[in-house]
Amino acid sequence: MTDYDVLRVFCAANGGYGNELGVVRDGSVLPDREDRQALAAKLGFSETVFVDDPERGAVDIYTPTLRLPFAGHPCVGTAWLLDVPELVTPAGVVGARLDGEFSWIEALPEWVPPRTLRQYADAAEVDALPVPPPGEWIYAWAWEDESAGRVRARAFPGRDDGIDEDEATGAAALLLTDRLGRALNITQGRGSQILTAPQPYGWVEIGGRVFLEGPEKQPRSAGY
């Protein structure tokens, strides 16, 4: 059996919404990348994290179809779960901290794969968008209240892996924060909340609420 935890990351104030995340705390049970990729595909979360060293915070992140050097909501959720001051990702060392109900990480925009940040006239236009065909990774956004830094957003990964829309995406929020150069309060998907803030030397903080749904077990089968 492969044990894993299920978290919801970037939840709303009432504990609802958030993007689901699978975390395999003992990555040694699946040391091979092919097996990890197969499990990530089988679980079907937008990302699944394998923890290779819980004390150092060394992690390995997968979508259902590919391995990522860095991703926002997996790092926010895993840092909260492990309660560590940093995570070690292939992209670099991610700072982490807890502040009341929010879990925060600090990362660099250059760690994020290319995303198309597409601005719309208002939140209603973003709400009405259909899911685009696979191809381009699109972060659709509009101001809800520009003076207050409130943003409405939706994320379309453009992958042919069953994830048509991501409920909450920290990496895309990081890129938007870097572009706009200001702190943001983002409502994404059906109602998830992402907070961001620029930091010195190009770093960006991303924060949100994390809830533990519970531990699960994935039966071993061919390839696991």
UniProtKB/TrEMBL annotation:
Molecular functions (GO terms): catalytic activity
Catalytic machinery residues: E47
Record InterPro entries: Phenazine_PhzF-like
Extent of the signal sequence: none
Transmembrane regions listed in the UniProt entry: none
Gene3D superfamilies hit by this protein: Diaminopimelate Epimerase, Chain A, domain 1 (3.10.310.10)
One Pfam family, short name: PhzC-PhzF
Name of the protein described by the UniProt record: PhzF family phenazine biosynthesis protein
Taxonomic source organism: Streptomyces fuscichromogenes
Lineage: Bacteria, Bacillati, Actinomycetota, Actinomycetes, Kitasatosporales
